[in-house]
Design goal:
This protein is α+β, with helices and mostly antiparallel strands and 108 residues long. The protein is 54% helix and 30% strand. The model has no long low-confidence stretch (mean pLDDT 87). It has a single domain (2-83), classed as Aspartate Aminotransferase, domain 1 (Alpha-Beta Complex). Residues 22-43 are annotated as: Disordered.
């Protein structure tokens, strides 16, 4: 017997922290799945529907994790720096020292 499941998940996440700023993320995700299942005493119709719903929920959860949270993390990490200006200055000075040391070593 053919089963059809259409599920929609609506997501809204917000952060209003003074240390990291404000972030608002929202969206919806809709997925449809069709599956042919046989109905029997050991696998009644309601059990087949339950498995279909659980499969869809797992797929939507995985997609939300990959698309919304993964991409948002990549974007936020690209825009924001977790290093202070002093740490960046120290790192830049170290990099310059290493470059100069390598240049001196190559000249010898």
């Amino acid at each position: 017997m053919p089963l059809t499941s259409i599920e929609t998940c609506i997501l809204k996440a917000a952060s209003h922290l003074s240390t990291s700023g404000t972030m608002n993320l929202g969206g919806s995700l809709t997925r449809q799945m069709e599956k042919d299942e046989t109905v029997s005493d050991s696998s009644p119709h309601i059990a087949n529907i339950g498995r279909l719903v659980e499969d869809m929920e797992n797929k939507i959860r995985s997609t939300l994790n990959e698309i919304y949270f993964g991409k948002t993390k990549d974007i936020v990490n690209g825009l924001r720096s977790v290093q202070t200006f002093a740490d960046k200055s120290k790192q830049e000075a170290l990099k310059n020292d290493l470059v100069e040391a390598l240049k001196r070593k190559q000249q010898c």
